[in-house]
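Case study 2.
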Amino acid sequence: MFFKSIFDRGASFFGLILLFPVLIVVGVLIRIKMPGGPVIFKQKRVGQHGQLFTMYKFRSMTVNHSGSSVSVKGESRITPFGAVLRRYKLDELPELWNVLVGDMSFVGPRPDVPGYADKLKGDNRRMLLLKPGITGPASLKYRNEEELLTEQDDPQQYNDEVLFPDKVRINIEYLDNWSFWNDIKIIICTILGKNL
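Prediction:
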């Protein structure tokens, strides 16, 4: 996957340069529409080989909320402007920096908060061989995850017992069948809002 790493570093570098005006505009709008908190949300996530790293996103929630690690569409901690950022995935643009410095890849499993990696057993622990990604096959399948969770009586339980195991299965399959051209296909599908 050496070529994957080279592509990630180069594409993220040029992506940050090309999208710099967008990053500035979004940052200013967050200051105006969501005052009293930081523009950038920072959180420890589990990376390759189980190592923790700091992931960066645009803040889309209220400050000092006490919600769970599972986000449900329409919940009060997500601000109106934050909902727009999340709908169009603009909140994830700062993750290009994580890709540039090597903590993440463009394509891979979404990085989980600490605790979920501990649930990986046996062959499933091979998922930790992958760098977490901005997008991936599981992200495409569950692009409407927040809406799906709103339909559940217990979103946290549904995430832990249904979504998480299926995402692990999909990511192991991605690892076993990786190709650079498949990564390109996943990135294009993500941009176009289509499924694989």
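Residues 62 and 76 are 8 Å apart (CA to CA).
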